[in-house]
Amino acid sequence: xxxxxxxxxxxxxxxxxxxxxxxxxxxxxxxxTPLLLGGIFYYVGSIANExxxxxxxxxxxxxxxxxxxxxxxxxxxxxxxxxxxxxxxxTSVTDGNSEIGLVLDENFSENLTTDxxxxxxxxxxxxxxxxxxxxxxxxxxxxxxxxxxxxxxxxLNLTNEYVNPIVIEEEDLTTEEExxxxxxxxxxxxxxxxYVMSGSTYPAVDLGAGEKERGTMETLISTNISSVxxxxxxxLSVTTSAVLTATFSMxxxxxxxxIIFLFYADSVNEYLFSLLSALLNPVAFLAVFIxxxxxxxxxxxxxxxxxVYAKTPKEAGLLLGNVLIIFIVxxxxxxxxxxxxxxxxxxxxxCYNLALLTNNLIAGTVDWFLYSVSFISTIVYCCIAIYxxxxxxxxxxxxxxx
Amino acid sequence: MIEVKNLSKKFKAPSEEKGIxxxxxxxxxxxxxxxxxxxxxxxxxxxxxxxxGKTTTLRMIAGMLxxxxxxxxxxxxxxxxxxxxxxxxxxxxxxxxxxxxRLNVLETIKFFAELNQIPEDIYMPRxxxxxxxxxxxxxxxxxxxxxxxGMKQKTSIVRTLIHDPDxxxxxxxxxxxxxxxQSVIIDLIRTIKDSGKTLIxxxxxxxxxxxIADHIVVxxxxxxxxxxxxxxxxxxxxxxxxxxxxxxxxxx
Lengths: 402, 252
Prior knowledge:
The structure holds 2 protein chains of 2 kinds.
Chain A: H1 3-16, H2 19-53, E1 56-61, H3 67-74, E2 78-82, H4 86-94, E3 100-104, H5 108-113, E4 120-124, H6 133-155, H7 160-163, H8 176-214, H9 216-222, H10 227-263, H11 270-279, H12 282-309, H13 313-336, H14 344-347, H15 352-363, H16 368-394, H17 396-399
Parallel strand pairs in A: 1-2, 1-3
Antiparallel strand pairs in A: 3-4
Helix pairs in contact in A: 1-10, 2-8, 2-10, 8-10, 8-11, 8-12, 8-13, 8-15, 10-12, 10-16, 12-13, 12-15, 12-16, 13-15
Chain B: E1 2-19, E2 22-38, E3 43-47, H1 54-61, E4 69-74, E5 77-78, H2 83-89, E6 90-94, H3 105-115, H4 120-133, H5 149-161, E7 167-171, H6 179-195, E8 198-202, H7 206-212, E9 215-220, E10 223-229, H8 230-235, H9 242-251
Parallel strand pairs in B: 3-8, 3-9, 6-7, 7-8
Antiparallel strand pairs in B: 1-2, 1-4, 4-5, 9-10
Helix pairs in contact in B: 3-4, 3-5, 5-6
């Protein structure tokens, strides 16, 4: 067995006997995160579901009788409260006694009969994004307005077509795969990058700055192992942890989905079911996994170089915390700009390319040339990071930095 | 066995002059033009106050630091030219046991033996002999983290000796170690001395030196201020003990 293999086996054994490594590599990505995400989705879904059954209080003020108020009163889901002044309507909404406030202008009915515009003021707080109160009220107002418009046109012997010379018909040709890619692609990539990082950070700190602090680095370099063997052994240990974390994170996403398909297919919303079906694409997952491997090596080498430079694990943690932002930010860009397309320059940016390629792979629209550019460029970054790590391990000023 | 020729090491250290990014760094010689020879089979001790360059010297001899000037030969191998060959001849140990907490004793020894490319049929009988000598057989499957300091020290000794090195380098082996640990180390040094191997160690314990060392090198501010055998050291002032002679030397 060569020396790097001896070191690798020792490092893996040493790392995985630490509960922290097992928790970070296996438990969190496989169980905790899916449970957490599932819990959040369930909670959000149940809130949204509750809202569809809820009755909302609407405070109104109108100086005169109006058919609109009558129509609002007829709605099962609106509880209309009559107030004596505009100020009372505002106070009621502000204090949370009603969800919506509605004030009809004092000339409301008169304006309608004289073919003028009648004014309605709606008071609301737009914080509760789940609330359906406003849309229920505006839908009734829209229907009321449509009826008024039809009456006016009929009085003039005009048709709806006369006032709407162009009719736009929209047909969304987005496939389920494209929707799934656009909705989940960047999020999944962000999760994978975060898992690769969390899977490499602790081993990198432990095998670099941690060994320096414990004095085992000095013991190691006092033996006749070369710097190259040390780097290969340590880097592969960090990478193994990162790839395992990424693998378990993929399983953490895939297994709950398979369970949903097998046992709860009937209870899942049809649109969500189609999106999840599109996500379960083994080719896409395999292609993403192939991209993650060199990214893991790159991160492993990069983090190890920083860790070995640090005097203590505390300093390493501080340095790595700042450096990790470099990997996270490129993943966020496609998340906040869903329409972004991968181009040649983008394919050279690590993590950014992974986010867009994950999107394209799920959508089935991947450009394999850009995929290859991303893969090869990440391998080039790996080589640079490994070289930097080699320089670090070969520099006695770094190893004995104190 | 050890031939040290003009051995020097320069480091960067903060000066009193302030720069844009804190104190400016300037060169300082941690070890300067050190020359001495240690015969094969002898026990040599390097003495000196803190910061005099003992650890740096031992690290250069062990091939862990590259000399800025001069060199050291271990069995005629130049440390500047073939560090790996030198390291394979050396067993290096510090007072800090520096072992992997989550490995057990046997795994630790196996790791260092395999790292030195020693076949199992050679290292296992050697390890068993050392385990018996050091009364460690009950603890072989215990993790390092669960061992007492004395047992860690013993494991560290077996680790240092498992590849049967020609030269053993001990950097302040008894500093910060409890009485049990110290006795383990002293016994080790005696055993090594009896086996005819060469040993060089740095220490602040002058009693150890008087009892064990054949050769003494005293350093001060990176330079050698005494180099000779035990008797010549005592001969510096026969009316004083080792500690008094040492104090006089370093305070001059």
